[in-house]
Structures are given as structure tokens and as C-alpha cells.
Amino acid sequence: MYERKIPLTIDCGLHLTREVLNGKWKPALLKAISLDIKRPSQMLRLLPDATRRVLNVQLKELEMHGMVEKKIFPQLPPKVEYSLTEIGWSLMPIIDAMDQWGDANRSFLETVITQDPKITQTAKSACLAYGQITIERKTG
Amino acid sequence: MYERKIPLTIDCGLHLTREVLNGKWKPALLKAISLDIKRPSQMLRLLPDATRRVLNVQLKELEMHGMVEKKIFPQLPPKVEYSLTEIGWSLMPIIDAMDQWGDANRSFLETVITQDPKITQTAKSACLAYGQITIERKTG
DNA sequence: AGTATATGGGATAAATTTATCCCTATAGCA
DNA sequence: TGCTATAGGGATAAATTTATCCCATATACT
After folding, report:
1. Separation in Å, CA of B33 to nearest CA in chain A
2. CATH code for B13-115?
3. How would DSSP label each residue in B60-113?
4. What is the helix (H) or strand (E) element at residue A113, kind and residue range?
5. For the HTH hxlR-type domain, which residue ranges apply (chains A, B) (predicted)?
């Protein structure tokens, strides 16, 4: 599989949280699930820049960390649904705050981020559907 | 220097924010600065698991992203002080929420995180001083 | 003269995260 | 039969992030 060689820093709450949210698509996945997008195929459509593989991997990590639960329906073709656990829900205020902060400062952030010479291109196709999603969140 | 080869995903606010906070020590650095720990040498002492090099690199990124400002005093040996910009301050509610969430769920998180077979060791020496810091935050 | 303090950054190796590719399984439909 | 939809995961390459090492500056102190 692969074994970590450097001790994981879990000194303060900040680092513990960082570990849970650390993954290119994890925040987006949590938000998607909170918006009732629970099937992997739906998430993949919502996040077209992500590959099926990464989403699988990151969902599994979120599951191992206890943030989401996976329900497998014994059907064919397979059907799976993810949902947030209680502790997973408790992360939503943070996720929402991050999303709002980023949106509120979009023009400034795009400017400073893209002015970095390392950045030669950006992708914007993902998450576009968020704005169109008007589904109410269910509590728990 | 090095040039990014894959387009940076900046579709939704979540990803923009992720980009700004993405770095092993960035959240901790922002918090430290907000607590009036403004000199690099102090930050290094606060975060003993980080190397001087990484802190330099991540501070520079935070600066380029407009989250912190750097004031250089024309002295020798050199003296430098960082401070949060207005937009940098606006991140603090998120940073604080992350820190509090992590602390509030520490025992659970430590359990699930260390149960991962990839993780063979953890480091807890950093940030320990936070608890002892009772300095009031100055506004702006 | 040697040592400590402070800060910055180049070069390069190592570690970790993502991306790619490919294979598995089965029902349903043209 | 051949193709689509669904979901999972191994193997391996590539990309990106961190870690290590080392050099530079200049003052003050022993």
C-alpha cells in the first residue's frame, strides 16, 4: 500500500482538522453530500475535473475518518449512497465558511493566485452546478 | 523555479480558499500572527516541527496571496515582522473554527487518524505554546 | 578568532498526493 | 452480440509539496 515515513503532525486542533480536510476534493465532496448528492456517479458529474479514482480514494479516507457513511445497496449495477455522519455534519459550518469566503473574495483571489508565475492555467469547470442546486439540506 | 503543469482548480469558493490555506503550516502561521507572534524566529520556536525553510516558503506564499504583510526593519542582525492584512484577518473566523473543531474532537480524531495503517508515528510537539498564549488580539 | 542571533534562498533529495490506465462484475437495451 | 451504466481498486507514472543541506550578511559578545 505505502507507509508514511514522516510523523504526522497532530499537535493542535488546526492540524487535526487539516488532516481530515486534506485532499484536493474532500471539502467539495463533503459539501456535495450535504447537498444530497450522495451517489458517486453524481459527484463525478458535479466535479468533472476530478477522476473517478481520486474521488473513490478520498471518499474512502473520509469514511475511514468517520466523516461519511457508506450504504451499499445489493443491486446490479451497483448502487451506493454516502451520507454525512454526525461529526461530518459538524464540519459543515467550516466548509460553508470556506466556500463563502472564497466566493466573496473571488476576484481578488483569482488575481493574486494567477499572478504567480508557477500558475500557467486554471480550471473552472467543476462545481458549477452548486449555484443551481437549490435543494434544502436535511438535518442529520 | 518550477512550473505547474496541471491547471489549478479554482471553480468554486471552496477551491479558492483551499488554495490559500494549502500548506502544512499556513493555518498555524496565520493563527500565530494573529496572536501577535510576528517574527519568523518566534514562529519557528512556536512550531518546532517545522523547518526554517518551509516557514519562509509558506510565509512568502501567504504574502504573495495578500494574506500577510511583511515589514523589514533596516537593522542587523535583520528584523522582520509580519502582520495580517485586512483580508488575512477575515480568514481568522475560519482558522479559529478549524482549531476549535479539531480540539473539540481530538480524542475521536486521534483514534481514527492513527488507526490508518499508513500512519506509524505522530508528532505533537508543535503549537503547544498556543494554550499558554493569553495575549489579546489586536484588531487590524 | 570563534559563536550566537536573524533572515533569505538556491539546489537537490525524499515524501506524498494525483493522474493515468486498465481490469472486474452484471443487468438492461438496441 | 456489443455498448452503457455503476462502483471498486491494483499498478505505476507524474506532479507537487516538504525536507535537508549549505551558503551569505553583519553585529555583538566571549
Report:
1. 14
2. 1.10.10.10
3. HHHHHTTSEEEEEE--SS-EEEEEE-HHHHTTHHHHHHHHHHHHHTHHHHHHHH
4. helix A106-114
5. 12-110
> Closest Cα of chain A to B74: distance in Å?
27
3-state secondary structure string across B12-61: CHHHHHHHHHCCCCHHHHHHHHHCCCCCHHHHHHHCCCCCHHHHHHHHHH
- Distance in angstroms: CA B66, C1' C30: 58
Residues of B in contact with A121 (CB under 8 A): 4, 7-8
Q: Facing residues of B55 across strands?
A: none
Q: Is A40 helix (H, G, I), strand (E, B) or coil?
A: helix
pLDDT tens sequence across B79-135: 999 999 999 999 999 999 999 999 999 999 999 999 988 998 998 875 655 555 544
Q: Measure the CA–CA gap between A71 and A106, rounded to whole angstroms.
A: 36
Question: CB of A2 under 7 A from strand C?
Answer: yes
Residue extents of the structural domains in chain A: 13-115
* Cα separation, B32 vs B43, whole angstroms: 7
> Residues B53, B41: contact at Cβ < 8 Å?
no
Helices A13-21, B26-34: crossing angle, 10 deg rounding? 150
Protein-proximal nucleotides of chain D (any atom < 7 Å from a CB): 5-11, 14-22, 25-27
Q: Separation of CA B56 and C1' C21 in angstroms?
A: 39
**What global pTM score does this model have?**
0.91
Task: Check residue A129 and report its DSSP letter.
Answer: G
